[in-house]
UniProtKB/TrEMBL annotation:
GO terms for molecular function: ATP binding; ATP hydrolysis activity. It comes from the Bacteria. This is ABC transporter ATP-binding protein. PANTHER family: ABC TRANSPORTER ATP-BINDING PROTEIN ALBC-RELATED. SUPFAM superfamilies: P-loop containing nucleoside triphosphate hydrolases. Keywords: ATP-binding, Nucleotide-binding, Transport. It holds the Pfam family ABC_tran.
C-alpha cells in the first residue's frame, strides 16, 4: 500500500492587494515530523490553514493522494489543524465554552477521536474541564491545542505554536508525547514554532519560509551538517570562503563572520587564521532569514 501524501502546486494566497503566499510547491509525506519555521508574517499559519481547507487558496492545487482537499469530506477526515487559540480570536467564538465543551465539539468534528487519550491528557496537564476558555492562561490554551491535535488521531496533524506560554517542563512533556505518538502510529506532524532549538532534535525535516515562499525543505540533520560559521580577519575569511554559498556576512572592524553552506561532497572551508564551527538550527535560520542575509 502506497504512503499517503499531501501535495500543493503553485499555491498562492492574496488578501486584497497583499500577496501572503507566493508560488508554493510542497509535498508532505506520511510518517514524518516536520518543523515549519519562519519569521512573523512569513505565511506559516496561512499555509497550514489552506492545507487543511480552513482557508481557500487564491490560486493553486492542494491534493491528498491525488484527490482535491477543498470540500472533500473523505480527505478532510485525515487532516487536523489545531491552531493557536485565543478566546477572542475572530470567528472562533470559543470564549464562553468550557474546556469539556470545546473537547466535545472536537470529538464530533474528528472522526478518529480518541476520547481516552483526551481524558488522560486533561488529567496529566492538570486542566480544569469546567473552566471557561476565556479564563484560561495562554499556557493552558496551548495545552488544549495539544490535546485536540493528539486526540484527533488524524493522519496529517498540524500544530500552530503548540508550546506558546508553556513552561519548560510542560514543553519537554509535549516533545516526548509527540515522539511517542509518532513512534506508535506513524502519523505525520507539522509543527510551526518560534522555539527552534528545543524542537530541533525531534524534527526529521525542516521547512523554512521567508516572505511567503518556501526557502528550503530538507532533512534537518543533513542541513546542519552542511552549514558552518566561519570567522576571523576579514581578508582571510573572504579568501577561505571563495567558491562557497555564503549567507549573512557581518563585519566588526577588521573581523568578519559569515555562514557557509557546503554542497554535497564539498568539504568545509579551511585556512590559517580562521575559525570554522558547526551551527545550530536556530543559527542556520537566522543566517538564511535574518537581516542582511
Amino acid at each position: 500500500m502506497s504512503e499517503a501524501m499531501i501535495t500543493c502546486r503553485n499555491l498562492k494566497k492574496n488578501y486584497g492587494k497583499q500577496t501572503v503566499l507566493k508560488e508554493i510547491d510542497l509535498t508532505l509525506e506520511e510518517g514524518k515530523i516536520y518543523g515549519l519555521i519562519g519569521r512573523n508574517g512569513a505565511g506559516k499559519t496561512t499555509l497550514l490553514s489552506i492545507l487543511s481547507a480552513q482557508n481557500p487558496a487564491t490560486n493553486g492545487e492542494i491534493d491528498l493522494n491525488g484527490e482535491r482537499i477543498w470540500e472533500n469530506k473523505e480527505a478532510l477526515k485525515e487532516i487536523c489543524f489545531s491552531r493557536e487559540i485565543t478566546p477572542t480570536s475572530s470567528g472562533m467564538g470559543v470564549a464562553n465554552y468550557k474546556v469539556k465543551d470545546y473537547l466535545r465539539i472536537a470529538s464530533v468534528y474528528f472522526p478518529y477521536w480518541d476520547g481516552e487519550m483526551a481524558k488522560r491528557l486533561v488529567e496529566e496537564f492538570g486542566l480544569d474541564k469546567k473552566k471557561r476558555m476565556s479564563k484560561l492562561s495562554k499556557g493552558m490554551l496551548s495545552m488544549v491545542t495539544i490535546i485536540v491535535a493528539m486526540a484527533s488521531k488524524a493522519k496529517f496533524t498540524f500544530l500552530d505554536e503548540p508550546v506558546a506560554g508553556l513552561d519548560v517542563v510542560v514543553r519537554e512533556r509535549f516533545y516526548r508525547l509527540l515522539l511517542e505518538e509518532y513512534t506508535e502510529t506513524g502519523r505525520t506532524f507539522v509543527v510551526s514554532t518560534h522555539i527552534i532549538e528545543e524542537a530541533a532534535d525531534v524534527l526529521e525535516e525542516v521547512i523554512i519560509m521567508d516572505k511567503g515562499r518556501i526557502l528550503l525543505k530538507e532533512n534537518t540533520q543533513e542541513l546542519l551538517e552542511s552549514c558552518f560559521h566561519v570567522s576571523g580577519r576579514g581578508d582571510l575569511v573572504d579568501e577561505a570562503v571563495k567558491g562557497y554559498e555564503t549567507h549573512h556576512p557581518e563585519s566588526i572592524g577588521r573581523s568578519k563572520s559569515v555562514m557557509v553552506r557546503t554542497k554535497p561532497g564539498q568539504n568545509p572551508p579551511k585556512g590559517e587564521g580562521i575559525t570554522v564551527q558547526p551551527m545550530s538550527l536556530q543559527k542556520v535560520f537566522v543566517g538564511l532569514c535574518g537581516e542582511g542575509a
